[in-house]
Amino acid sequence: MSGLTKTRARTPGASPAATKPRDTSGPPFWTIRRRDVLAGYLFIAPQLAGVVLFVLVPVGLAIWYSLNDWNVFSGGQSFVGVDNYAALADDPQLPSVLGATAVFCGGVVVLNIGLGLLLAVLLNRRFRGATFFRTLFFSPVVVSVVAWTLVWGFLLQDNGGINGLLDTVGINGPNWLQRGDTAMLSVIVTQVIRSVGVNMVLFLAALQGVPAQLYEAARLDGAGSRVIFTRITLPLISPTLLLTAIITVVGALQSFAQIAVLTSGGPELSTTVLVYYVFQQAFEFNHIGYGSTLALMLLSFVMLLTLVQWQLRRKWVFHEQ
Amino acid sequence: MSRARKLAGAVALTTALALTAACGASGDGSGTTDATNVKLRMTVWTSNQDQLELFDSIAAAYRAKNPEVSSITFESLPFEDYNTTLTTQIAGGNAPDLAWMGDLSKDLIASDALVGLTDHLKATDGWQYDDLEASATKEFSQDGTLYAYPFSTSPFALYVNTDLLAKAGQRIDPKNMTWDQVAAAGAAVHSATGKAGFVVRDFDYKSWNMLATVWTGFGAAAWSQDGKTCTFDGPEMQKAFTFLHDAAFKTQAMPGPGTTADFFAGDAAFTVAQVSRSSLLTDKFKYALTPLPPGPAGKYSVIGQAGVGVLAAGKHKTQATNFLAYLTNPTNSAKLAQFFPPPRKSLLTGEKLAANNTVLTATQLQEAVVDQLPNAVTLPNHTSPAEIAQKGKTALDAMWKADADIPAVLKSVCTAIDPILAK
């Protein structure tokens, strides 16, 4: 404030020489602008420190590791330039891994958002037991992912609970986790059932934010349920759709525990998704350099997909034109 | 601006000084360089309270004689993640002084990450280096130097649920069975009772190296003696896998993929497991224990091993080596023998082993352990064990289908692991 007071104390047109003796050190350092800037930085400092320590530094280290070959037992490290990046093209397993990643992410995103929206629409109506069902569908979210997956692992055994149930109605269930197609379906479904509650709650909140008078007006104009849903509901909840799409895609690309516990990436490579492959290469095979290269590839995928969705929001998110 | 620069400089200097001070304090505080305050740490994968108490009591006796060692900690790590955790500790500059090791030993030895023990153990009074069984030390030796003491050398044996065999009307002498007879009896038990026939414990259609307990009886091996060439697609291996595939998909003598059966819970007629698993036996059913049944190649025996070594990256190599020599001397080896089959010939008699085993008789232990060790082979082990295991498993997954092309799948295993063997 002292700087401001001094500045305002000057009389317009007054001779600079008259003020010179009192202002020998030049303009004050702590101007209002600088103080504001400092306060701003102090406010974001804790978050910034976390991002620097746990995101930027590890990413920087991963870039460095990806340029090196590292013997973790002897501690020897040698600079190999872009060899690890060139190895991506020669990795015979990588196409299968990327394929499994695409199928898993696609399956999780479509099912999770579709089912989440369906449940939200159904549970947005007033009927007895609505709260119970909302709690029921949300409750898996708070269960430990490992505990959840372990239980499903038992249920999906050839002689497990699912096939036992199917057997009672005369259906000979498949060996869920031992066949490539059913193993992938199993990990997708267990992931979706566990996490669909989050999307359901977000959609519920969005649905309850749609003004009721819009529905009334549409009905007065003779609009049917389908038209009301596609022309009023969907556009008005599109910001939430964007949010859930981003969260679900990023979450699917990071799904690790389900794969590790349920299938260990098998049978063959059918459920080896990219994040599990990163773990295998870096921590099981001790290929830290190549594992870091794969991790950076995963990071670039996440960033790219998020960026694409963010750009697309102008086209399909209401109020974003 | 000059004040801002001064401020930034002061912050940087303070940070650097603080970090330097912190690093310095860490080094001094842990007593890592102080020979009068040595703190040893040993990673293990057991969490058995009795075993840990025995280790603690041996460590306490050692510290009483060696006051420069202020503490010896036994750090229990989960077995499933043991190799990954140990490797991460080494890579992170936090290597333990001593560590248990299984299939990681080849990588550690090849990387000079272990301290050679032979000279020290031979020079230790009363240690009796020549007492070690040669077949037990082979796995942890290179160029005549022992790098880890094989504290647990446990042969695989065939456990038989004689109650289940009787229930299925199978009158065979467990001591004189071949693999074909085991498969036939197993199929009969499954057919008559719905229980499983024979189970290779811990295989679970994932850990294929456990199948060495079967394929060795067919004269097969995963790779050549020098570890450079894959022999998985050889005719002996084809016979072994044809036997296993038939058992899983034709006769159902072995539970198929995705089906669990625990012998020790009474769910199977036979299981192949290490003798050290006998602690799981209860009085729920009558049982017998025999050496592995002969296959087409005749009699054979397979051992599973665990060793303990001194990490070259540890902070107190000399003190750690001294403690290892004490932990494994004849007196303490005898104590450890109550939990882990020892590698010392002087302790390897049925009667001595039976003194610490409440489940198996001296005769059973003599036949299943002592008589098996001299000619035993170990489970397949090689450098890069996890990568070989994963690549092999991925290729072998195609085997566990009813219409599998056995020779083609075995060939694909070699295609997958040959580049790793050739490194």
TrEMBL record, chain B:
It comes from the Bacteria. CDD domains: PBP2_TMBP_like. Keywords: Signal. The keyword Signal applies. Transmembrane segments: none annotated. InterPro entries: Bact_solute-bd_prot1, SBP. Residues 1-21 form the signal peptide. This is Sugar ABC transporter substrate-binding protein. It comes from Streptomyces shenzhenensis. The lineage of its organism: Bacteria, Bacillati, Actinomycetota, Actinomycetes, Kitasatosporales.
